[in-house]
Structure formats: C-alpha cells, structure tokens
C-alpha cells in the first residue's frame, strides 16, 4: 500500500491539512460539479475555498488523523452544497425543485441532484446506522473510492464495499419513499 504525503506527515494544523490535501480536494470538488447542471454558478476551486473558510471558522482546531480530516471536509462540502441548493431553490429565486431518484442516477453519477432531499435522507441514514452514514458521506460528498475509504477508516475493502452497497440501497429506498 502506498501512503500519500498527507498520510506520511500527519499535520495537526487545519491549514496544513488543507494545503497538503488541496489537489485531492480540488479533484473531489470537480467530481461534485461534474454531477451538477452545466450552467452552475460555482467552480470547483470556489467550493474548496468555501469549505476551507467554513472549516477555518467553525472546524476543529486540530485533526486527529486522515479520517477525521476527510470526515470534516465531507460534512463541510455537503453543507455548503446543500445551502447553495436551498438558495437556488428558494421561491424568490424561481423554486421548481427537481427530485432525482437514485435508480436513475446511481449516487456516484448524479445529474442535477436534489441536495436538500439527499441531505434529509443522509440524516435519516445517520439515525439508522452511523457507520453506513460515514461511508456514504465519504463516498458521495468527499468522492473517495472504496479503497480510499478503507484506508481512511482502517477497514477492509470488502467491508467498505458491502457497507456502501447497503447504504446505497437504503438511501435509494428512502428517497423513493419520500417521492411517493
């Protein structure tokens, strides 16, 4: 297993974590926007910078490890995208929410996702099973692969793959139930 620079040197300072992980975070943000509508008003760099600002204002003072850092980034990215979606969908801005079923999109390739509905589903998943929630959050909002999640959470690939499958199925059913 090859360790990344971030894993070899475990910085405690949040700005050092962001500096070391910036290229990876930029890639993750680009994946998020690849799933968004084509005329999105933000760029991936802006999302990463917004997440950095959010974490510098109200994030942890120190990160214990890579899992802690990426969990905080995933939550901040999720909240940032959800707030942006809520603003976009506000009635004074035209409303007309568009719900996307996970059957149509397969979480990893969502086109124009309804982040508000997805956020509510994630909250319900957390109540159902916090471990599944963490894996799904790292997969969907941090864009980590099964292998990257396994390394980050110090779990086996097959365990993460199984838990991701369960979480994805659970989220699909939850969103379908909410649609009906």
Task: Sum this structure up briefly.
By secondary structure, the protein is mainly α.
Overall geometry: globular
Order of helices and strands: HHHHHHHHH
Structural class determined from secondary elements: mainly alpha
Number of beta-strand segments: 0
**Oligomer description:** single chain
User: Treating each run of at least 4 consecutive H or I residues as one helix, how many helices?
Assistant: 9
Please describe the biggest sheet, giving its number of strands, its sense, and whether it closes into a barrel. none
Write down the Rg: 16 Å
Mean pLDDT: 76
> How many domain regions?
1
Strand content: under 5%
Distance between the termini: 45 Å
Share of helical residues: 55-70%
Low-pLDDT runs of 5+ residues are 108-112
